[in-house]
């Protein structure tokens, strides 16, 4: 039995709306706009009575119907007799009139000016930087405490994280680094072959992989793989209230969750960077052999003479710092996750974007610093 509503004229000035049946989202029911049109067509109406009989089941559908009718009658200065409305429905209607949500929707929001928009963006950036520096300060304090022996991490969990960020990351690091080495070698061959300087392909590939591309590509790969995993794992723990349980039990979330991940990634990043550089040089070797008349001995000899210790240590220093950024940002975004599944995905995406941006900015700063010192 669906919802029924019928408008009957008692006289020229009085009309009655009879409501009965089942009024919920699963059954058909009349629309309020239909009755508003009927009431509008009766220009002589001054009073409307609401009558309820055989009303079986109702929910917000009936409340919404009555609110529309009452609001229209109020706007047209029509008297409505609500004495027959059941007390439960009447209370919900009165509650809707005083609801702050209704007041917010009924008032038009003032459009923000360009200056206000710039101010809001600046405030968001300031608060984000403030939270980031605060988190980094706490993390650095925990690292110092760990170095002094005043903080401990669980060896079993640390070993699991170390394996995840190290050995399991080798396949994707190998693939991307090999392809990057191929691309650099192809571009180098196309340009250097015009001058008969194919031997310098080894120099370009070796120096670029060891000094820049090895650490940058490894950092970006780990940001998309490991940093996102850190953010998703900790964000899910936030949704499941596991972080609150840890803090209630007296455990520090930074010491218990963040510190093992940061140390593991900082520890493994230099090894991954060296491995990435080696694989990239191997990719360049394949191109040099098949695209030029260079031999394996010539390529390896030229690469060994072109790369110096400065290039090696520059890549190592950058990789350590990139690993710290990726792990810290991933964990921070996870701890900032809100209490919904949608926010976990948003947190993961934000972590990857922020980590990659931070890596590029940090690499630019390192380039300026090393250039100033002639490294």
Folded structure, characterized:
The chain has 375 residues and is α/β, with parallel strands linked by helices. It folds into two domains: 4-106, STAS domain (Transcription Regulator spoIIAA, 2-Layer Sandwich); 152-373, no CATH class. 71% of the residues lie in helices and 8% in strands. It is built from 13 helices and four strands. The chain has helices at residues 32-41, 60-75, 87-97, 100-106, 114-147, 155-165, 170-192, 201-239, 242-248, 253-291, 296-306, 309-335, 341-373, and strands at residues 4-9, 14-23, 47-58, 79-81. It has a four-stranded mixed sheet with strand order 1-2-3-4, with helices on one face. The N and C termini lie far apart (84 Å). The relative contact order is 0.09.
Question: What topology emerges from the helices and strands here?
Answer:
Layout: E1 4-9, E2 14-23, H1 32-41, E3 47-58, H2 60-75, E4 79-81, H3 87-97, H4 100-106, H5 114-147, H6 155-165, H7 170-192, H8 201-239, H9 242-248, H10 253-291, H11 296-306, H12 309-335, H13 341-373
Parallel strand pairs: 2-3, 3-4
Antiparallel strand pairs: 1-2
Considering the chains and any ligands shown, give keywords for the structure.
Transcription Regulator spoIIAA; 13 helices; 4 strands; alpha/beta; 2 domains; four-stranded mixed β-sheet
Q: What does the largest sheet look like?
A: 4 strands, mixed
Cα separation of the termini? 84 Å
Run of helices and strands = EEHEHEHHHHHHHHHHH
Count of discrete domains = 2
What is the count of helical runs? Answer: 13
Average predicted local confidence, pLDDT: 85
Spatial arrangement of strands, main beta sheet: 1-2-3-4
Q: Which structural class is indicated by helix and strand composition?
A: alpha/beta
- Fraction of residues in helix: over 70%
Which regions contain 5 or more consecutive residues with pLDDT less than 50?
A: 101-108
Radius of gyration: 34 Å
The outline comes out as elongated
Tell me the β content. 5-15%
Number of strands: 4
């Amino acid at each position: 039995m669906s919802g029924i509503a019928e408008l009957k004229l008692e006289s020229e000035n009085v009309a009655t709306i009879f409501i009965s049946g089942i009024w919920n989202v699963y059954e058909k029911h009349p629309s309020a706009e239909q009755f508003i049109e009927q009431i509008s067509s009766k220009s002589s109406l001054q009073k409307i009575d609401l009558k309820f009989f055989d009303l079986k089941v109702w929910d917000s559908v009936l409340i919404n119907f009555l609110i529309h009718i009452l609001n229209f009658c109020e706007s047209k200065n029509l008297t409505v007799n609500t004495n027959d409305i059941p007390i439960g429905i009447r209370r919900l209607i009165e509650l809707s009139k005083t609801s702050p949500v209704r007041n917010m929707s009924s008032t038009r929001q003032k459009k923000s000016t360009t200056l206000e928009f710039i101010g809001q963006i600046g405030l968001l950036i300031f608060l984000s930087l403030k939270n980031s520096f605060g988190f980094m300060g706490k993390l650095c304090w925990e690292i110092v405490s760990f170095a002094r022996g005043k903080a401990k991490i669980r060896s079993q969990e640390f070993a699991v994280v170390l394996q995840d960020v190290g050995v399991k990351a080798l396949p994707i690091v190998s693939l991307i680094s090999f392809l990057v080495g191929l691309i650099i070698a192809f571009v180098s061959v196309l340009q250097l072959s015009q001058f008969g300087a194919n031997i310098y392909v080894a120099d370009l590939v070796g120096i670029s992989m060891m000094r820049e591309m090895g650490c940058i590509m490894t950092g970006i790969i780990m940001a998309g793989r490991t940093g996102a995993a850190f953010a998703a794992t900790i964000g899910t723990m936030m949704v499941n209230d596991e972080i609150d349980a840890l803090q209630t039990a007296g455990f520090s979330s930074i010491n218990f969750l963040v510190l093992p991940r940061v140390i593991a990634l900082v520890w493994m990043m230099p090894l991954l960077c060296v491995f990435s550089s080696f694989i990239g040089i191997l990719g360049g070797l394949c191109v040099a052999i098949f695209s030029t008349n260079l031999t394996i001995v010539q390529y390896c000899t030229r690469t060994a003479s072109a790369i110096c210790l400065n290039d090696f240590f520059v890549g190592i220093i950058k990789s350590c710092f990139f690993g710290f950024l990726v792990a810290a940002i991933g964990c921070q975004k996870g701890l900032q996750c809100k209490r919904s599944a949608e926010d976990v995905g948003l947190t993961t995406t934000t972590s990857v974007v922020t980590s990659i941006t931070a890596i590029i900015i940090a690499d630019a700063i390192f380039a300026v610093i090393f250039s100033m010192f002639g490294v």
